[in-house]
Design brief:
The complex is a heterodimer. Chain A has five helices and five strands. Chain A is α+β, with helices and mostly antiparallel strands. Chain A has two domains: 75 residues, Beta-grasp domain (Ubiquitin-like (UB roll)), CATH 3.10.20; 76 residues, Orthogonal Bundle (DNA polymerase, domain 1), CATH 1.10.150.120. Chain A has a five-stranded mixed sheet, covered by helices on one side. In chain A, β1 and β2 form a beta hairpin. The longest helix of chain A has 22 residues. Chain A is globular. Chain B is of the alpha+beta class. Chain B folds into three domains: 47 residues, Uridine Diphospho-n-acetylenolpyruvylglucosamine Reductase, domain 2 (2-Layer Sandwich); 116 residues, Uridine Diphospho-n-acetylenolpyruvylglucosamine Reductase, domain 3, CATH 3.30.465; 109 residues, Enolase-like, domain 1. Chain B is 35% helix and 25% strand. In chain B, the strands form four sheets. Chain B has a five-stranded antiparallel sheet. A three-stranded parallel sheet of chain B has the order 1-3-2, with helices on one face. The model of chain B has no long low-confidence stretch (mean pLDDT 96). Classes of the chains: A alpha+beta, B alpha+beta.
Chain lengths: 161, 293
């Protein structure tokens, strides 16, 4: 069936089988391979994308269910002035090694900071609790999210002055 | 790669439309909302519906409404929405306790309250919580609407009062009369963050003006309690002063009357111990919130 999905602000129309999962629509049909396809069982969170503004696990959403809706993937984080602060902070704080979990971590972290600009470590750990990283032991991921929060608060204060 | 088998897909525009599709296609049609139970089951061929009826865009099924005497939670309310509703946290804190320990934030963003109770997984947290709170379910079907109490909603593992041609509209949680001191709490023991419960319990207590227990609801999750509730423990407490001895006796009754099964999460004796200890703890939490101790 024909579906139309807005992905990172761009309207995309495809003819898909109802059983196609959103993660495969993004990766195989739209060639947005930044979203990773991990455990397939809604455990690991590597496939996290925003659906209408909230992160969800795209291995457990049918592409047809996204018809008429808005998707934001890791490719949509970068703005006209370069990388998003959360991406910069992951680079600066060594928030990744192999990078497999990173797109999902970034999408969830961005959502957290939009909701909670000054999160506690506990709130950060809770926010990423549906995501698995096998490299970093999470310490640097938490540090990166904290770093991004501080940088954004600084920037906001400078802007307000 | 895990993919569901082939199926047809239709989006329902209204409750009426969803019911018409269910009647037309019979038991081979299934409703889908959050899909976080059904899609994994379809990938494993534990479910093979011929038609999926997507109810995500049925406006009547959304929304939380709080009136003087009840909380109305639409079947399509996402876990995150329930957790974000501060008024629910004040009126029925047990629901927030339970939501905080359901899966993880991403799953909670998609999964629905109605889907959770209709899945009727024996380890599902909201089943015990809503049963403890004596909620009722409004169900729509070809013959109109009917209301079923949560204690009577669960017919067994993965089986509920909702028939194949019916649809859950909302859950309604009764609120105690104003002026009565009331509190509720939920606790869960699991092996790791976001996991299913090894065992969990919830309690809702309403105190009479003289400090005795006017009404109490005790829910048990994953512990093999009939209809997710510990009625024997409730009966022991009702009308009594909630002394440590009375709470202890309620815990013993809850442990004695549930029938947990041994699995990879623990042996029977351990789960029975959890039933007793968690019952005591949630009763103490609920009483503290009611200002009764």
């Amino acid at each position: 069936m024909e579906i139309t999905v807005t992905v990172n602000g761009r309207t995309r129309t495809r003819d898909v089988e109802p059983r196609l999962l959103l993660v495969h629509l993004l990766r195989d049909e739209l060639r947005l391979t930044g979203t990773h396809w991990g455990c397939d069982t809604s455990n690991c969170g590597a496939c996290a994308v925003w659906l209408d503004g909230v992160p969800v696990k795209s291995c457990t959403v049918l592409a047809v269910m996204a018809d008429g809706h808005e998707i934001r993937t890791v490719e949509g984080l970068e703005g006209p002035h370069g990388l998003d602060q959360i991406q910069i902070s992951f680079v600066q704080c060594h928030g990744l090694q192999c990078g497999f979990c990173t797109p999902g971590m970034l999408m969830t972290a961005r959502w957290l900071l939009d909701r909670v600009p000054d999160p506690t470590d506990e709130q950060i750990r809770e926010a990423i609790s549906g995501q698995t990283c096998r490299c970093t032991g999470y310490e640097n991921i938490v540090r990166a999210i904290r770093h991004a929060a501080a940088a954004e608060r600084d920037a906001a204060e400078r802007g307000a002055r | 790669m895990q993919l569901p088998a082939h199926f047809e897909y239709q989006r329902a525009r209204s409750v009426e439309h969803a019911l018409a599709l269910l009647s037309r296609h019979g038991p081979e049609a299934r409703l889908i909302a959050g899909g976080h139970s059904l899609i994994p089951m379809m990938k494993l061929r534990l479910a093979q519906p011929e038609l999926l009826i997507d109810i995500n865009e049925v406006p009547e099924l959304g929304g939380i409404e709080i009136t003087e005497d009840e909380i109305r939670i639409g079947a399509l309310v996402r876990h995150t929405q329930l957790l974000d509703c501060a008024e629910v946290g004040r009126s029925a804190p047990m629901l927030h306790d339970a939501e905080r320990v359901i899966a993880d934030p991403l799953v909670r963003n998609r999964g629905t309250v109605g889907g959770s109770v209709c899945q009727a997984d024996p380890s599902e947290d909201l089943s015990g919580a809503f049963s403890a709170l004596r909620a009722v379910a409004d169900i729509a079907g070809p013959a109109g609407e009917r209301t079923v109490p949560m204690r009577g909603f669960f017919h067994g593992p993965y089986q509920t009062a909702v028939g194949p041609d019916e649809l859950l509209l909302r859950l309604r949680v009764p609120l105690p009369a104003p002026g009565l001191r009331t509190g509720s709490a939920y606790r869960k023991v699991s092996r790791r963050a976001g996991d299913w419960a090894v065992g969990a319990a919830g309690a809702a207590v309403t105190l009479a003006p003289d400090g005795t227990v006017a009404e109490v609801g005790i829910g048990l999750t994953a512990l093999g309690a009939r209809e997710f509730v510990a009625t024997e423990a409730e009966d022991l407490l009702r009308g009594q002063r909630p002394t440590p001895e009375a709470i202890d006796a309620a815990g013993r009754a809850a442990a004695q009357h549930c029938e947990p099964v041994a699995d990879q999460r623990g042996p029977v004796e351990y789960k029975r111990h959890l039933a007793g200890e968690l019952t005591r703890r949630v009763l103490r939490d609920a009483l503290a919130r009611a200002g009764g101790r």
